[in-house]
Here is the input.
Amino acid sequence: MIGVGLAAPFTAPLATLFAATTEGEAGAIAGGAWDMLVPVIVLLPLAGFLFTAVAGRRLGKRAHLVPVGAVGLAWVIGMAAAVGSLTGSAPFGHEGYGHTIYTWIQSGAASQGGFVVDVGFFVDNLTACLLIVVLTIGLLVHVYSIGYMGHDPGYWRFFAYLNLFMVSMLLLVLADSFLVVFVAWELVGLSSYLLIGFWKHKRSAALAAKKAFIVNRVGDVGFALGIMAIFVNTGTLNIRQAIAALTGQVATFGPNPRMLGDGVDPAIPISIVALLIFAGAMGKSAQFPLHVWLPDAMEGPTPVSALIHAATMVNAGVYLVARTNPIFASAPESMAVVAAIGIFTALLAATIAMTQTDIKRVLAYSTLSQLGYMFAALGVGAFTAAIFHLMTHGFFKGLLFLGSGSVIHAVHDEQDMRKMGGLARKIPHTYRTMLLGSIAIAGIPPLAGFFSKDEILGEAWKLGFQWVWAIGIVVAIMTAFYMFRLIGLTFWGESRVDPAVEPHIHESPSVMTTPLWILAVPTVLLGLVLSLPGPPLGPLLGLHGPGLLAGWLEPVFEQGTTLLAHAEEPFQIFGIDGALIGASVAVAVIGVLTAWRLFGVNLGSIQWRPNPERVRELTARAPFLYRASLNKWWFDDLYHLLFMVIGGRMAALLWWFDRRVVDDTVNDIATTTVGAGTSLRRVQTGRVQNYALGIAIGLIVMAGSFLVLAAR
Amino acid sequence: MNVGEIPILSIVTFSPLVGALLVAVAPARYARPLALAASLGAWVISLLLIIGFDPGAPAARAFQFREAVEWIPLFGIQYKVGVDGLSLILVVLTTTLSWISILASFGPIKDRIKEYMVSFLILEVGLIGVFVALDTFLFYIFWEIVLVPMYLIIGIWGGVNRIYATIKFVLYTLVGSLLMLVAILATAFAFQAATGSWAHAFDFEKLRAASFDPNLQIFAFLAFFLAFAIKVPMFPFHTWLPDAHVQAPTAGSVILAAIMLKLGAYGFIRFALPLFPAAAHTFAPAIIVLSLIAIIYGAIVALVQPDLKKLVAYSSVSHMGFVTLGIFVFNQQGMDGAILQMVNHGLITGALFLLVGVIYERTHDRTIAKMGGVAAVMPVYAVALGFFVFASGGLPGLSGFVGEFLVLLGAFEFSPIVAAVATFCMILAAGYLLWMFQRIAFGEVSDFLKGLGHHLTDMSPTEILTLAPLAALTVVFGLFPGLILDLVRGSVTAVLGDASRTGAVEISPQVGLVLVALPILYVIARIIWVARIDLGGGGGGRVADGDAHGGTHGEPVTSVEAVS
Here is the structure.
């Protein structure tokens, strides 16, 4: 009861607002209004994109007005929809609300197993959570970009692309059909391509953009095949109907001959379907072995890294797996694969992040690592924890990236942390907000990251995945370490900034620092808000019931959780749960202290000097590990060898085959015929009648021989 | 012919011929506007056809706007035309691309403009004729008419090696089509033998209802197959295509890729499948394998093409592989997808050839390695190129995606393995297209382009006008593929009905083994033989240019790094 009481102050004002906008007019037509309004969330940025693409060039420095305005308006509607869904008001209710807009593809009659794809939207609480993250961070990044991209000649182009990205990402979370999700899936890939390669004169940017798109396509092949398998198994691509049919909730769905009766195994085993979907998720969320594109994607402008490559697009894979959780839950072996890939990526990326010197690359590998945590959570069946971490991570990683952009801005486009240091006093807003972000990601209570990460690790242990927990704990140490290494190198210690730049270091304008402070709010509070009144703090305060987020997502994950049939152990703060929390906090502190010892700290009364000799000594002691980390475990080199060098040779060989074997065979036949023709020249009399006779005879002989053959 | 009605199909078909006659007699300075007017006229009338067409007509009235006149009564040969949804959509595609191509020729073609426009308009007559003919002999006549103007267009207005390319193109196509003529005559003989009369012996609708002897089906199907496979072109009959494309003038390439390749696919759906369904079933597995090879092989070879036009040509081989794959999996999604893919390939690849022409007009070069930084000097061009690059790569939301996905889905229903192999092409397509786009559009402006200075202007209004309709249709068909699918529903149902009428003709395993083993043995032997020549002459991997035809085989094999 008290739980409801606590949640209410947070949501009540918004709920009233929501009620005033729709139900206030007429409760009965509320569904009808949302049928229009939800598509408008996508259409607004689309209009902004089209307008800016056509007219933006002429608008100069005012080019941001329409795109930012469009996203701002979309934010208002989107928040209203999200609140409407989370409070369970009409028409969303407990199960969510959807509406079909039009039939996109129809190949064959639906009643005879034809392929029909409807375009429509579906909003439930999972969508609502994603809407909050995507729209809020999206809007803040749009605002921030007004300052960050202010001097760029491609100002209008940048905002056009950003709006295109918003269209794609919103479509992705709102779509109710697998194929429409796939459309959005590829469109976010396109906008990501355009934004990574935004500085098109930079060869490295163009290469990174291409790499991102192609590596994503590898995952997309799996996703596309998964969609085909889903259709062949169920006869529909509507997400909810397909899931219901796949997991046997309904024996048949409609009069579809393709549908399988009771007791018949689907044409494609459900574990294969799950793994194919997961392949798509691995591409978009940059999981091993498809992780190589994300660090390179940092070639794009920093707001892009914050929005697309930290807070939204890379979460698409997590969203997809969470959305299809009953499919995964029906095939436990696929869940194990998800958990293994996730936690391995978390470890791999964390080891790399520890030695990188480019501030954005550290954050990029950190993102990979945190995404790995989310997949580990999905894999062990802690779906809510995954979405929890998705939300908190979206905010604090968005903050960290925007902060890094502010740093880069301050030191005149320098990204190498070895040429920074001592910036804390010169850019105080950036420093303070980034410090908050680092504490959050390191998992120090009571900031947001602690709650979500601890829930992942705790659940992993309690659901029987102790190995996931063990690796996760190691990653947690590394996370705290590399983040405070970043803070130490950038903000504390002596300045190593280029003396020519040093006098010009300045804090960013308020259009950039305000979004940082706004993001700092959820970075600090979101974990607390979303976890109360549930564990871990709820029981300590004498509260009961599930956390706010867990309550929201309960209907979404109900089926998956039921299928997994995990025994729900009560939360014991003075038992196993308390011990697990203690371990999480302890490793975070160890990581932070280690980083302080090596890279210094300057935090109030704590003043430690950096110790570069010790760093050198440590790296010398484990030269292989150090080089492996520095060289990103040589994955880029391996892929270059496999696909560029060897693949290129193969392609060249095939072209040789094409000319020397296929084409020359054709030419040889022609040459031989000409040779034969020359020797038969005397047949040529030059009289047309003779030719005609010859042709006629030839045709009759040929046709006759056909008839003889046919008559046999 | 329906008495009292206007013979509108004949008007569409022959209005370009009237235009050609006018161009021929009028002074040369009127050649351009007259040709454009004639092609626009045909286009407008063809659009009227769509309005008048009833997609929901019963199967017996599937062919509409029918006209039938006795032509050679002795053998029952008729001038018989009519369109169903499939023909109609291809007729409109032809008339659309024709005026676009003629408009795109205004600048580039300077010599013998009169002859050029006459050839082009006659080409249009032949192409429309192929799609409307309902008499197999008439079909053959139109099929061959197409060759003549294209032979001239490549041979007269083409590049340096135009003679080699055009003779190769014509001879290769002729080999297939003459065999097809024999098969057409054989079916007529068989029909006559069965009915005892020559009446309707070439009438497609009557032939379709007849079922031919399995042995005749096998041989006739193979003859049709050869003609159509060369035209599509399917692997391994594709090598005329890159040569023809590279040598053809821009508009020639556009029509070649957008329409002429569709003749083969149309032939499969219209004639080969309905007339010889049992044989089609027999050979379907082999054709599916060849399609898969074309899809993957075309894409891989496209990766390493140094010449922009050759890259697009090989991408056509890959894309048309999807069409033949979709046709021969014999299900609704595959067939629907194949038809969509035909239309989309026409729009998108046509546009890509136009774009190649735009850059060639300014640089007189098509070497990808010489380009770079085009986005900085020709921003509109870069946007247009980017749009069609992504369209060609099957970006969802644009038309290429729907066709490709339906084909893949049809293939998946046939066999998930087949679909998996074909889907792999998504990666390769992104590879060759984006790599090409990156090398042309991104990076610093290349020295070669800098040297051109102010000659490197952005796209002219005329050039934009040729591309805009294609871009618009690419978006429209991407969002509303039903516009095409609804139109061709009847055609697809009919041809799938024909295909499901019978099972396959059994051929003995020994024959099958020989048919598979012989080409493989030949290829292995040939590889060993050629490799000994090529490797004997010089260092590893270098290809000796010992070819008598010169030029077309001159490019050394380049590894990926060297081209980048």
Remarks:
- DSSP finds 27 helices and four strands in chain A.
- Residues 52 and 246 of chain A are 43 Å apart (CA to CA).
